[in-house]
Amino acid sequence: MRHSQATVEATGVTVEFARGRSKQAPFRALDNVDLEARPGEVTCLLGPNGSGKTTLMNVLTGLLAPSSGHLRVLGLDPATQRRELLRRIALVPQETSLYPELTARENLVFHARYYGMPVRDQRARIEETLDLVQLGSRASDRAGTFSGGMQRRLALGKALMMKPDLLLLDEPTLGVDVQSREAIWQRIEEVAEEGRAVLLTTNYMEEAQRLGDHITIIDRGANVVRGSLTELTSQLPETKRAEVPPVSLQDVFLHFTGSGLRN
Ligand SMILES: Nc1ncnc2c1ncn2[C@@H]1O[C@H](COP(=O)(O)OP(=O)(O)OP(=O)(O)O)[C@@H](O)[C@H]1O
Ligand SMILES: [Mg+2]
């Protein structure tokens, strides 16, 4: 599958943030990072807190300009073609954004219209989505009155009901209960099976292990390892591979990110 044209192509992406008042050198949040996401695949970007996942998402959607690097998303340059890009992707940022005064259903209707979902599809897809994120019985309640996890599910619903060329999810199931998570994972798999590209960030090993056709691990703003789960585990030293079978993604993650040293 890896030979098809990449939907996301990022090479050598570097992002620096000025450090407020001090005269210190800028903080390098991303250092020469490479990332690819392909149609028909779920690509997981895995990294500890502060490793630069959200920063990279912001670069890919044109919210943030990198100080250097080459970027193409759906063949477009996010820095100069942001409007066109945003029409073709569905995005769930890390911070949930909803209209709190609108009901759950109204939030979906608004999103569907704004992003030009065909009118004939709207009613069915909105009702299906409310079921998918298990908010059917709360569809007429205002989103602002929902619990954190319910708001997160509604925000996911907004993206999952669309048919984008690229689905970008920043920690999609953070705070989502197991009952809803399984349905959401299945929908994410379907999106990839439909031939679309999915790129998601996560801290959940289980999520990356389950969904990731391709996994890119970053740590402190830099690439550490990338490949399929099998490719990643084969990169562990012999001694670690021999440990309790089967080797889990968590073993790979802790080995390469040095997070094990912090504990
Ligand atoms: N606007 C900003 N100004 C200065 N530093 C920033 C800014 N945005 C992010 N950073 C820094 O860049 C680093 C990467 O942050 P980022 O939010 O991308 O991490 P993350 O991998 O998404 O973490 P998490 O798992 O907690 O969501 C952090 O050290 C953060 O403090
Ligand atoms: Mg983040």
From TrEMBL:
<dbReference type="InterPro" id="IPR050763">
    <property type="entry name" value="ABC_transporter_ATP-binding"/>
</dbReference>
<dbReference type="InterPro" id="IPR003593">
    <property type="entry name" value="AAA+_ATPase"/>
</dbReference>
<dbReference type="GO" id="GO:0016887">
    <property type="term" value="F:ATP hydrolysis activity"/>
</dbReference>
<dbReference type="GO" id="GO:0005524">
    <property type="term" value="F:ATP binding"/>
</dbReference>
<dbReference type="GO" id="GO:0005886">
    <property type="term" value="C:plasma membrane"/>
</dbReference>
<keyword id="KW-0547">Nucleotide-binding</keyword>
<keyword id="KW-0813">Transport</keyword>
<dbReference type="InterPro" id="IPR027417">
    <property type="entry name" value="P-loop_NTPase"/>
</dbReference>
<protein>
    <submittedName>
        <fullName>ABC transporter ATP-binding protein</fullName>
    </submittedName>
</protein>
<dbReference type="InterPro" id="IPR003439">
    <property type="entry name" value="ABC_transporter-like_ATP-bd"/>
</dbReference>
<dbReference type="InterPro" id="IPR017871">
    <property type="entry name" value="ABC_transporter-like_CS"/>
</dbReference>
<comment type="similarity">
    <text>Belongs to the ABC transporter superfamily.</text>
</comment>
<dbReference type="Pfam" id="PF00005">
    <property type="entry name" value="ABC_tran"/>
</dbReference>
<keyword id="KW-0067">ATP-binding</keyword>
<keyword id="KW-0046">Antibiotic resistance</keyword>
<feature type="domain" description="ABC transporter">
    <location>
        <begin position="8"/>
        <end position="245"/>
    </location>
</feature>
<dbReference type="GO" id="GO:0046677">
    <property type="term" value="P:response to antibiotic"/>
</dbReference>
